[in-house]
Structure formats: C-alpha cells, structure tokens
C-alpha cells in the first residue's frame, strides 16, 4: 500500500517533482509580474462591478441575456479574487504552503475558469433559443435564469474541488505533475482535454448560429419596414458574444495546452519557462471582457459612464431618447410579456421613425 503525505508541506512535493523554478520568482521578474497582476486585478474589480451594477440599474438590461452577461462579469470578479490570493501565495512562498492551502489556491483558479466556461455555454443555449425563433431575447423566466446561474456556480465549485476530493497524487508521488506538484497527471489530462473540447464545440455552435442569423437577416430585411439598426440587432448581439468567446479561447488555450503537455509528462517541452506568462494571459481575459461589453454596446457604456461620473439620468431625457441599445428592447404586444419581438419581424410595432445607429458592430 502506498504511503500518503497529507501532513507534508509543499516543499516536499516540489523537491520530489524536481520543480526548481519556484525560486525564480524573485527580483525584477517578480516585481514585474506583481505590478501587472495588481493593476489588472484592480481593473477587474472596478470594471466588472460597473457591469453588474449597470445590469441591475438599467431596466433595459433586465432580460436573460444580460443577466447571464452579469454573471459572466461576476465570474471575472471571482477570477480577480483568485489571482489576488495567488499573488500572495506564489513564488518562494509556494514551498511554505500546507497541502490544504495549496489546494485552495489552485481550486479558486479552476473554479473561476469553470464558471466562465459554463456561463458561456449557457449563453450559447440562450442565444440558440432566441435566434431560432428570430427574437432578440429568449422566453426564459427569472426563476429559470436564477436556477441556471446557481447551477453554473455549483458546477464550477465542484470542478474546482475535484482534486481536493481525491483525484490527486498525495498517495502516489510518481503520478505527480510538474506544474501542479500535488495534482495527478491523469487529472491534468482530463481537465485540459475537457476544456479544450468544450472550447471547440462552443466555437462551432456560435459560428453556426451567427451564420444562421446573418442569413435570416439578409432574407427578411428586404421584406420589412424596420430601420437598418433594428434589422442588424441580432447580428450585433452575436458579434458581441462571439468576441467574448474568442477572447476567452485565445487567453485560456495556451495555458490549457501547457497543462496537457505536463499531464502527458513532456519533460523536454520547457513548460516551466512559460507557465507564469500564460497565467497572466489568462488573467488578461477578465480584463478584456468589460472592455468588450462597453465597446460593443453603447447603452452599456452610457450606463457605466453615468455611474462613473455620479450623475443621475434625467427622466424626461430618458423618455425622449431615441438611442436603442444593441438589444433593441421592444416589448411584445403579447400580454404574457415573456417575448421580445425582433425588429426584423416586428419592425413597425417596436417603434416608428429612424432610431439611429446602434453602436459598434
């Protein structure tokens, strides 16, 4: 029977796996990483808080898509917390950590990744439900959206806790990985392959949805009297979501590939030399998302700017405003209130006259 090492500190496992680069996190390199990490984390906390507050404050965002977008911002905020915890428990400090504290450090990172990934997957389903009916928003009720958000975090927390629950190498040192000295190599292979496969599936799904809505928009635009901005709204929403997905895949894929190589025990791949920079790249994803929200949606940017300037919106100006967000939130004539009619189909019902440009495409 193999001996288990639950009571050992991390220096024991780093030495067993010949992970010596932990001491390189000193001097100028450590200062640069910590400075960039601190700046990014502060930006993550402030910007994602503004996104969540904007969705809560602006009633035009009280729809399933924006609730899920706010939850994605919450996942990015959580990622900021995970990186702050990492910064105080990395470098030479790593060797002094207990097993449980090291599990907590890595579990927070894994949870943040899973929360963002599953959230994007749920947004894909929500977009599919609405686009296939050629509507701006799906008919998901608030209860269902709440259930989905709770489920996203339950799955994320569970996946982050899997190594702690037993899938580790504390009782089999020979199976330990190099990047994560108490993670089993088999777990790293499972974790990285699972995420990469989900990445690929989501990219394919989003491309198919985008092509569908683009084709439908072109066909129906010549048969409706709605403005150009309303006819392009579904395409703009999909562009926003696809930009978010693209940024997520670009920022996380290199790190996952490195984990996969480590899980496959690639001793000549030089993964120790790039791990910290790919970690910063993953952190950059949580920085990029709020920028994408504001750049792609004028209404979101306007709401965030007003909160930054601490100015209240005048009600009369709000009523006279002819600027419609990328969602073009036109309520259906149906008294159930569950559907938001697409400007492509209900152009003459949603409003009359020119609505102007709808923001960046």
Describe the structure.
- The chain is mainly α and 361 residues long.
- 65% of the residues lie in helices and 1% in strands.
- The protein has a two-stranded antiparallel sheet.
- Helix 2 packs antiparallel against helix 3 (64-87), helix 4 packs antiparallel against helix 5 and helix 6 runs antiparallel to helix 8 (233-263).
- The termini are far apart.
Main sheet attributes: strand count, strand direction, barrel closure: 2 strands, antiparallel
The number of distinct helices, counting runs of at least 4 residues, comes to: 12
Distance between the termini: 62 Å
Tally of DSSP β-strands: 2
Global morphology: globular
Query: N-to-C SSE series?
Result: HHHHEHHHHHHHEH
Tell me, rounded to a whole number, the average pLDDT.
77
**Class from secondary-structure proportions:** mainly alpha
Q: What fraction of residues sit in β-strands? A: under 5%
Helix content: 55-70%
Assembly state (oligomeric): single chain
Q: What value does the Rg take, in angstroms?
A: 23 Å
> Going across the major beta sheet, what is the strand order?
1-2
Name the poorly predicted regions: 311-316, 319-361
